[in-house]
């Protein structure tokens, strides 16, 4: 098994402290040697049981999770709900210390407790649907906690840190957090896990783990060791193609000229995961920079001028064309038709068709004029777009050619990373490239993503008017005013698809970003040696499929070589 995240950290230096962000072993290999309460598939927005075998909303704002009594730590201690509750309490306490006065430490989670040994009770600020409540409770809040239960309440060090964090006043928290976030405890070689494999040998370029015979799923695992191999160039495709490892966690698919080197049994996993490549506009809300893209119709016009079909010539076997209307839904989901959104977008405005006639109409509506093949702004200036970075993006090359031919000048600016980050945060640009993970319907609308991050770089107005009904850009029923963040919250609380559909429609009619290409973010394994049997939500819908499958009787990973 290839370790996809070496980060230059030797195995002997890795640790399993989820609160320390450097030299971490909490994902590779921590996600294997530690188990988690449940397995959440962001691609399918589905929850599968693991240590927690049952969960229910005891009332609108109380989630109760029942833990199995069959799990133990590798030193023989019983694993209880208290172990996980301790970890979650520490995370919430850290968030509370970091929060501004009057702000919620966490948008949904208020507190957590263990009313008995095998029950965890999570108290919520607001009503939530069951799946959303479980997903939020088991997510990473301040570190890598989502990868497993790392805190053993019988461990003196974790118990001491827990007491300190829970009892400290503000004047003491700085020094406590300094220790908690810098200590490499426990080192990987000393880690006391609770998953199906335990530490056997930590070498310079390989880590070996042996089956933990007391794990509840041990009888269903027909191989005795699980190893991670590290390589200097951090590119898993070559060792995998050479037969040095059986699987790789990422960097698939590969470019066309590499495909012939792959083993005959080459099989992809994690296929529901992808990354989007987008055009990002500076929408101009609450920034002093004068940009033509403060007007939605001008953004739409540029999207219409773009000729998406020309991008097919530069995909290189890795990227896929996003051949749908902008809607903030993963391309893989639209391609498979696995969600109703694939039907909804059929009625949405589809840009990228080199529809110069429609583009001209939109510009003329806003007072732009065309003279001798050149477009002029309402102020009589030549219409010129400043594109910050993206010179290596071939889709931007296509866009610039399209715009220049249409009569809009473009100016390519390349700046260093620090300048790029500063200017996008300050809204000092017209267009720029962006790339983002697209790992699930709901994940793309996370509260810390759209109202927070995307707004901070695209500067869209959080309050928007959208034409109604959904799918009618002419607004035959008038307009509807929405607050993007509140709409997302209502969707989270009610699980009503109408909120999702209206958010997609807002994205399509506001176009703060336009999806151009998407790239599957898959892993791979050699099916000549291995047979995997798992629900799609686990094998293709989670980042950690190769770690999760041995943990549960919901799936199997069998050696057949």
UniProtKB/TrEMBL annotation:
Positions with biased composition (Polar residues): 1-15
Recorded GO MF terms: peptide transmembrane transporter activity
Matching Pfam families: SBP_bac_5
Disordered: annotated segments: 1-23
UniProt record, GO biological process: peptide transport
Keyword Transport: yes
Keyword flag Phosphoprotein: no
Domain Solute-binding protein family as annotated: residue spans: 47-446
Residues in the signal sequence: none
Top-level taxonomic group: Archaea
Keywords recorded for this protein, A-Z: Signal, Transport
Family: Belongs to the bacterial solute-binding protein 5 family.
Protein name: Extracellular solute-binding protein family 5
Biological source species: Haloterrigena salina JCM 13891
């Amino acid at each position: 098994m290839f370790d996809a995240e070496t980060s230059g950290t030797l195995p002997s230096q890795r640790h399993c402290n989820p609160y320390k962000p450097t030299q971490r072993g909490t994902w590779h290999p921590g996600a294997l040697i530690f188990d988690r309460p449940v397995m959440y598939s962001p691609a399918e927005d589905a929850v599968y049981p693991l240590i927690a075998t049952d969960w229910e909303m005891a009332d609108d704002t109380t989630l109760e999770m029942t833990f199995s009594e069959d799990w133990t730590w590798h030193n023989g201690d019983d694993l209880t709900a208290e172990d996980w509750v301790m970890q979650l309490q520490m995370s919430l306490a850290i968030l509370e210390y970091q929060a501004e006065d009057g702000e919620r430490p966490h948008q949904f989670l208020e507190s957590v407790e263990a009313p008995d040994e095998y029950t965890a009770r999570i108290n919520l600020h607001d009503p939530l649907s069951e799946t959303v409540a479980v997903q939020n409770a088991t997510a990473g809040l301040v570190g890598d906690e989502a990868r497993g239960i790392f805190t053993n309440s019988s461990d003196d060090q974790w118990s001491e840190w827990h007491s300190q964090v829970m009892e400290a006043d503000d004047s003491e928290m700085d020094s406590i957090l300094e220790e908690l976030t810098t200590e490499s405890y426990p080192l990987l070689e000393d880690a006391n896990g609770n998953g199906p494999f335990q530490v056997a040998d930590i070498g310079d370029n390989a880590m070996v783990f042996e089956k933990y015979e007391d794990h509840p799923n041990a009888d269903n695992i027909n191989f005795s060791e699980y190893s991670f191999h590290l390589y200097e160039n951090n590119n898993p495709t070559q060792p995998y193609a050479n037969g040095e490892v059986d699987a790789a966690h990422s960097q698939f698919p590969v470019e066309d000229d590499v495909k012939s080197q792959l083993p005959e049994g080459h099989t992809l996993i994690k296929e529901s995961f992808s990354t989007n490549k987008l055009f990002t506009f500076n929408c101009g809300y609450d920034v002093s920079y004068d940009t033509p893209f403060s007007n939605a119709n001008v953004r739409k016009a540029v999207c219409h001028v773009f000729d998406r079909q020309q991008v097919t010539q530069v995909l290189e076997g890795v990227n896929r064309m996003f051949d749908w209307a902008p809607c903030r839904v993963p391309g893989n989901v639209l391609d498979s038709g696995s969600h109703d959104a694939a039907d909804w977008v059929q009625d949405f405005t589809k840009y990228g068709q080199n529809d110069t006639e429609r583009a001209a109409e939109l510009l003329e509506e806003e007072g732009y004029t065309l003279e001798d093949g050149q477009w002029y702004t309402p102020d009589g200036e030549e219409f010129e777009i400043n594109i910050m970075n993206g010179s290596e993006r071939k889709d931007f090359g296509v866009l610039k050619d399209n715009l220049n031919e249409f009569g809009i000048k473009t100016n390519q600016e390349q700046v260093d990373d620090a300048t790029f980050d500063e200017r996008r945060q300050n809204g000092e640009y017209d267009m720029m490239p962006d790339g983002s993970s697209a790992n699930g319907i709901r994940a793309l609308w996370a509260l810390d993503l759209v109202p927070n991050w995307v707004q901070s770089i695209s500067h869209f107005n959080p309050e928007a008017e959208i034409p109604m009904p959904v799918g009618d850009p002419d607004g035959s029923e008038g307009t509807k005013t929405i607050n993007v963040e509140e709409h997302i919250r209502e969707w989270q609380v009610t699980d009503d698809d109408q909120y999702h559909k209206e958010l997609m429609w807002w994205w399509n009619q506001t176009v703060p970003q336009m999806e151009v290409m998407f790239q599957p973010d898959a892993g791979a394994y050699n099916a000549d040696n291995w047979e995997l049997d798992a629900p799609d939500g686990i094998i293709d819908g989670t980042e950690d499929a190769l770690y999760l499958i041995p943990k549960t009787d919901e799936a199997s990973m069998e050696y057949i070589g």
